[in-house]
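> forwarded from #structure-qc
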């Protein structure tokens, strides 16, 4: 974009106080954009009076995060606003997580947060105050090709976050910047050090709104009751203390002897946890996907060959997808370990372009 055009473009950057969003803001500021910093105050246990005497272990939901974001904005000389989204975050993200988990599903709240909060509510607020674009510290690349905005994996494959962005639409992508897409994490740290940005040390992980561990969180907010543990032949092996905290593929905290045991299935209606001591029982060659979004706005011609990721940290697997009513059937060339209902499967081209995705049934 020409320098004279950049000067007249206003960009709201989501600032968490961490190194990624801080460097993203600094990069755009140095390019000449008219910058504004937004810090989103989410709902979390520590912020809402539960375990309030301790710091949240996740950087993005801690009190120190807001202070760091404000300090970075001051260092860059840009206006800084706190966006109070506790109620919206609680309803759209936390309550969704609890409701899906109570049904025996393992949801991905980060994907919902991106869709409804960061690129939903925040974008709406930003555009409402005259911003032209919204920027975040996500590791992903956005290119304009063939009259479409196309999402690609980031240069740093270990930090790539495109998986969490598959719900975005062309309308949203038309207003988005991902400044870190062409940098590695090490390069980002080096820039932060060179520019002496007062970012908050540490990485966010797990669920940002949880103060301690997920199992403790679920026990506080859900009615969890003990039930039977069975093998795949329906033989009763023992009892679990509550179904909600378990997820497909889990090996730890299964109260049985003569292991190892893996969780292979959950029956929420009957409150039964199914396990196997044969890890091969976790593998599947096929799954069904619903709630599909295509980044280009139009579905692929079916059948199609794609590379599919069934979770954030898994390798993309060569697959064929076909239509099935309003859903899609994914058939893997090589069986995949522990596809989990509620998690997302995301489709890529071999060159790293993100095509879309959906929720595993």
């Amino acid at each position: 974009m020409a320098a004279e055009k950049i000067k007249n473009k206003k960009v709201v950057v989501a600032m968490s106080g961490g190194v990624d969003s801080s460097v993203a803001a600094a990069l755009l500021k140095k390019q000449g954009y008219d910058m504004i910093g937004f810090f989103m105050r989410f709902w979390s246990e520590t912020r809402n009076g539960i375990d309030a005497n301790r710091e949240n272990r996740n950087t993005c939901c801690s009190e120190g995060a807001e202070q760091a974001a404000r300090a970075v904005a001051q260092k860059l000389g840009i206006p800084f606003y706190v966006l109070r989204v506790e109620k919206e975050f609680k309803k759209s993200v936390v309550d969704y997580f609890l409701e899906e988990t109570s049904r025996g599903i393992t949801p991905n709240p980060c994907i919902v947060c991106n869709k409804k909060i960061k690129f939903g509510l925040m974008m709406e607020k930003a555009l409402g105050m005259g911003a032209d674009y919204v920027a975040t510290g996500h590791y992903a690349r956005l290119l304009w090709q063939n009259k479409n905005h196309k999402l690609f994996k980031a240069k740093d494959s270990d930090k790539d976050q495109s998986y969490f962005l598959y719900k975005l639409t062309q309308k949203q992508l038309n207003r988005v910047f991902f400044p870190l897409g062409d940098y590695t994490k090490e390069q980002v740290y080096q820039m932060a050090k060179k520019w002496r940005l007062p970012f908050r040390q540490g990485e966010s992980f797990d669920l940002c709104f949880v103060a301690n561990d997920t199992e403790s969180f679920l026990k506080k907010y859900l009615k969890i009751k003990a039930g039977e543990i069975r093998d795949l032949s329906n033989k009763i092996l023992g009892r679990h203390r509550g179904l909600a905290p378990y997820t497909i593929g889990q090996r730890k905290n299964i109260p049985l002897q003569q292991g190892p045991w893996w969780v292979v299935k959950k029956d929420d209606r009957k409150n039964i946890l199914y396990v196997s001591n044969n890890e091969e029982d976790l593998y599947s060659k096929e799954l069904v996907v619903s709630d599909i979004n295509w980044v280009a706005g139009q579905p692929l011609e079916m059948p199609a060959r794609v590379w599919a990721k069934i979770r954030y940290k898994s390798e993309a697997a060569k697959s064929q997808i076909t239509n099935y009513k309003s859903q899609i059937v994914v058939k893997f060339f090589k069986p995949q370990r522990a596809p989990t209902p509620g998690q997302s499967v995301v489709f890529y081209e071999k060159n790293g372009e993100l095509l879309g995705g959906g929720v595993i049934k």
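QC bot note: The longest strand covers residues 283-294. The helical segments are 3-7, 19-31, 63-76, 86-102, 109-128, 170-173, 185-194, 214-221.
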